[in-house]
Amino acid sequence: MTSHYAVFGNPISHSKSPLIHAAFARQTGQDMDYQAILAPLGDFAGSVAEFRAQGGAGANVTVPFKEQAFQLATRHTDRALAAGAVNTLKFENDGTLLGDNTDGAGLVRDIESNLGIPLRDTRVLLIGAGGAAAGVLQPILDREPAMVVVTNRTPEKAARLVARAIHGRTAVTACAFDQLRHEFDVVINATSASLSGKVPALPPGLFALDSLAYDMMYSQDDTTFMTWARGQGATQVSDGLGMLVEQAAESFYLWRRVHPHTAPVIQMLRSVR
Ligand code: NDP
User: Fold this and answer.
1) What pLDDT, on a 0 to 100 scale, did the predictor assign at position 195?
2) CA–CA dist 76, 74 (Å, integer)
3) Which atom of ligand 1 is nearest to the CA of 133?
């Protein structure tokens, strides 16, 4: 019997998730379909309930509903609790609505496995303190970097994220852009500035030798952040397409208990966009 999945967002027509999950299903021989659903801004819960009543087995959730999905879930994974946001829902047979957040695992997998940069003992700069930054901070800390600095245009929001995090052996601080003093091995742009062709107003001198600049946004050409980072001396630059596919693979595993191969899907998306 075909199992039904969906992604809820508003807007949603641009979403690559249906393409990604269709590719995973073909590759692993899973009998499932996956559609994009435009949820009304005022009735996300109603839209999810309708899908569930029609036999939906699980769903992804994107902007602007990740916090509402967190509220809606009746049980949360640890990483969803750390993020305070949910991007994956699983409708359990006993009525439980399980909420997970796979964004951070997707980012870490892309940086460590696809780009070949272990985060352990590195110095990481996380720029931004919105939903995306909240989703990835704890999974980054769990890899035990030497240092993580969270910086944001509104610094109080960065401080709130840091206060909530479980630091472990990593030194974690928050600061304003103009207080940044260190060099970093990995610089992650988790702001939405690239969407409007802007780069956060960061000081020069952030990139260490052999550093990675990672923009969570993805687009056909280099993002403004990637171009800026190259000019600032970053050795390697990447957009967030790999993260998108890896977070989808984590969701797929939660639903189907099968790990799809991500490399051919990343390659396919790079060739069709
Ligand atoms: P939010 O709206 O929750 O947060 C936006 C963040 O960007 C805030 O920190 C905000 O700062 C900052 N910001 C916006 N404009 C500027 C600017 N001009 N200069 C400096 N800072 C700015 O968005 P999300 O966190 O949900 O998403 C952020 C990005 O991550 C988006 O581009 C999104 O597409 C991407 N993303 C990619 C994923 C992937 O799989 N590749 C997954 C999830 C997100 P302030 O607090 O001061 O307003």
Assistant:
1) 85
2) 7
3) 25
